[in-house]
């Protein structure tokens, strides 16, 4: 099983509004893509997908399978996301559902600040755009 297959499978386990397998693989094939998979005893339990270009990085997706949440895997994936970005990356962005308090807490612990709310972006839920500068990198 290749990385695209692993991430696509994890995506389906983690999200009700999951990306299709072709979307996952297409994103990973882009020249600016960065990604990582977290394992526990050789079993994949989480991943991140993002991109970096011209000194800015965006975290598109980060997820840990439900039975492994709250055990530090998300923190390790965030650390790996930053480590995967070029050292001269100046700004980091992401978007999260307003009701995802666990994710919001994780991002805020990593220095992200809320900069914009997209009203109704997810239908009945707002999207929160967050940014972090490189000073914490």
Q: What does it look like?
A:
With 137 residues, this protein is an alpha+beta fold. The protein has a single domain (3-136), classed as Aminopeptidase (3-Layer(aba) Sandwich), CATH 3.40.630. 30% of the residues lie in helices and 35% in strands. It has four helices and six strands. A six-stranded mixed β-sheet has the order 1-2-3-4-6-5, with helices on both faces. A hairpin with an 8-residue loop joins strand 5 and strand 6. Helix 1 (3-14) packs across helix 2 (21-28). The radius of gyration is 14 Å and the shape is globular. It starts with a helix and ends with a strand.
- The CATH class, by name, is Alpha Beta
Shape: globular
In what order do the strands lie side by side in the largest sheet?
1-2-3-4-6-5
Structural class of the helices, strands and pairings?
alpha+beta
The CATH architecture classification is: 3-Layer(aba) Sandwich
Largest sheet: 6 strands, mixed
**Total helical segments:** 4
Please give the alpha-carbon distance between the first and last residues.
Answer: 32 Å
The whole-number mean of residue pLDDT values reads 94
CATH topology: Aminopeptidase
CATH superfamily: Gcn5-related N-acetyltransferase (GNAT)
Secondary-structure element order, as H and E?
HHEEEHEHEE
Tally of individual domains: 1
Unreliable spans are none
Computed CA radius of gyration, to the nearest angstrom: 14 Å
**Number of extended strands:** 6
The helical percent reads 25-40%
Strand content: 35-45%
């Amino acid at each position: 099983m290749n990385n695209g297959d692993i991430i696509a499978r994890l995506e389906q386990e983690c999200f009700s509004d999951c990306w299709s397998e072709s979307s996952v693989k297409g994103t990973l094939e882009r020249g600016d893509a960065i990604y990582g998979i977290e394992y526990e005893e050789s079993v994949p339990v989480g991943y991140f997908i993002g991109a970096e270009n011209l000194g800015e990085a965006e975290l598109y997706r980060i997820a840990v399978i439900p039975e492994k949440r709250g055990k530090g895997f998300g923190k390790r994936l965030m650390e790996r996301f930053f480590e995967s970005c070029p050292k001269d990356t100046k700004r980091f962005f992401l978007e999260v559902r307003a009701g995802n308090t666990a994710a919001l807490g994780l991002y805020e612990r990593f220095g992200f600040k809320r900069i914009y709310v997209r009203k109704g972006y997810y239908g009945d839920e707002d999207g929160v755009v967050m940014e972090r500068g490189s000073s914490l990198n």
